[in-house]
Specification:
There is one protein chain. Helices cover 29% and strands 22% of the residues. By secondary structure, it is α/β, with parallel strands linked by helices. The radius of gyration is 16 Å and the shape is globular. It has 7 helices and 14 strands. The chain has a single domain, classed as Ribonuclease Z/Hydroxyacylglutathione hydrolase-like (Metallo-beta-lactamase, Chain A). It has a 7-stranded mixed β-sheet with strand order 1-2-3-4-5-6-8. It has a 5-stranded mixed β-sheet with strand order 9-10-11-12-14. The structure holds zinc ion (2 copies). InterPro entries: Metallo-B-lactamas (IPR001279), NDM-1-like (IPR050855), RibonucZ/Hydroxyglut_hydro (IPR036866). This is MBL fold metallo-hydrolase.
Length: 233
């Protein structure tokens, strides 16, 4: 696990990152593709923590690279899953991708889509969601974790602002593989860009992403500059 702040850790599973927020217990944010449970557990053990201490799973959105191992981890630990209601509906049906998703422009997105996304299974193992998250709700995790409903990439997408840590868990509002860039697919790219603007109304130092590298400093300003650039195009 890579330590992002005193209570936030990132586990890289190759093409996707998941996150651990440490408090009294651990909160796992996203779960990777199907079959990622062992990798996640061993990363947590390597960092001297006990995976049995995971108290809950929060899913940023339904896509199979984020919710793919939720059912398995839930089964092993008998813990609840929390997600926004709009995506929870699909999670419970085992549907990993909502009907209409659109490929973003650019060669990198074309490559990612054709090499990885097109071939991957859009179904997930159905998982029951115990708690439906709502916009602006503050969860009692790490002294206050604000839910930011950030639709566009997926209608039920949420970002998590861990306020005292000044860390934003961005999910797939955008990516940071070779610098900040729009995600490879969106259900509604205009709404997705609006959601990038929405998070910049909050203060945070660091930002982490489902795909790519963390921003370690002035992340709110960097995302704001990125948002302004998108809007001037
Ligand atoms: Zn996604
Ligand atoms: Zn993703």
């Amino acid at each position: 696990m890579k330590q992002i702040s005193s209570k936030v850790f990132q586990i890289s599973l190759g093409s996707v990152n998941v996150f651990v927020v440490e408090d009294d217990g651990l909160t796992l944010v996203d779960t990777g593709m199907k079959g990622s449970a062992d990798k996640i557990f061993s990363a947590i053990k390597k960092a001297g923590r006990n995976p049995e201490n995971i108290q809950r799973i929060i899913l940023t959105h339904v896509h199979p690279d984020h919710s793919g191992s939720a059912a398995e981890i839930k089964r092993r630990l008998n813990i609840p899953v929390w997600a926004h209601g709009i995506d929870a509906e699909l999670m419970e049906q085992g549907v990993g991708v909502r009907g209409a998703t659109h490929l973003s422009p650019g060669i990198v997105n074309w490559l990612i889509f054709n090499l990885f996304i097109k071939r991957s299974d859009s179904a997930i193992e159905p998982v029951i969601v115990e708690k439906q998250l709502t916009d602006n709700e503050v969860l009692p995790i790490a002294g206050g974790t604000r839910i930011l409903h950030t639709p566009g990439h997926s209608a039920g997408h949420v970002a998590l602002l861990i306020e005292k840590e000044k860390v934003l868990i961005s999910g797939d509002i955008c990516a940071n593989l070779f610098g900040l860039a729009i995600s490879t697919v969106y259900e509604d790219i205009k709404l997705g860009i609006k959601s990038i603007g929405k998070v910049t109304n909050f203060m945070f130092d660091k930002a982490v992403f489902g795909h790519g590298n963390s921003l370690e400093k002035d992340a709110d300003q960097k995302l704001k500059d990125f948002y302004n650039k998108l809007n001037s195009q």
